[in-house]
Amino acid sequence: MSTTGHEAAASAPNAGEYVLHHLANFNSSGHPQSTMVDFSIVNYDTLFFSITLGAAGLFLLWLVARKATAGIPGRAQAALEIMVEMVGNQTKAIVHNEQSRRFVGPLGLTVFLWVFLMNSMDFLPVDLLPTIWQTLSGNPHAYLRVVPTADLNGTLGLSVGVLLLCFFYNIKIKGLGGWVHELFTAPFGNHPLLYIPNFVMQLIEFIAKTVSHGMRLFGNMYAGELLFLLIALMGMAFPSMSPFGGSLLWLGHIVTGTLWALFHIFIVILQAFIFMMLTLVYIGQAHEGH
Asked: Rounded to the nearest 5°, which phi and psi values hold at 12?
């Protein structure tokens, strides 16, 4: 091997560096950061893809709605009607306030479609958009993560939004005084000695629901992203294959990559559905008293 070849081999990232590079966000600090929550840092890639996919989802809904017909629906309209009916039935079963359902129903549909689109970014080849970004930026080491729901900052942002809606409906349905009374008298009872334990339990409940809501989606999508990266590493063994043997990891890349992608379709839909259902459940609980 020539000196240039030795230098290229030495500068090429190993498996660990490759994975860590793909798990790092393009953020305001300029330094790699993959999973930790830091309120002083803005992950530009998470914001960009979240907003872009949200706008794309709204545009798709608008396209289907403007072509809707009372006659025989097309495939897009039929799919949208099935989705709307599914979300509407779940909302009606969980949120019993008809006036609230006028907002919560469309909210559930928006959450389901938005999370589904963000999850679906996992189906793109892991090196496609990062390579394009590195070329456009002129920096071969530029960071970019394209799955917003594989970023804990993104999923916790969504769950905090749901928490704020729960606060809003608690106050709207029960009144500010009624909700404050509930915070200090439930679940153990209305007694001065129980006010502090009641409030602590309520606080723990809100925190636990919010953290678990965001962590559940993040954990599943982060694991899926990591598996796709490991499968991609198997495909890199292709250049080492010789006519008489060599590494066959490239074959494992094709087989496992195909199987995991097919199974991941189920995960992408399921996680979007679960996040939507928990959103409806938590808002529904805000309408009920202890």
From this structure: -65, 140
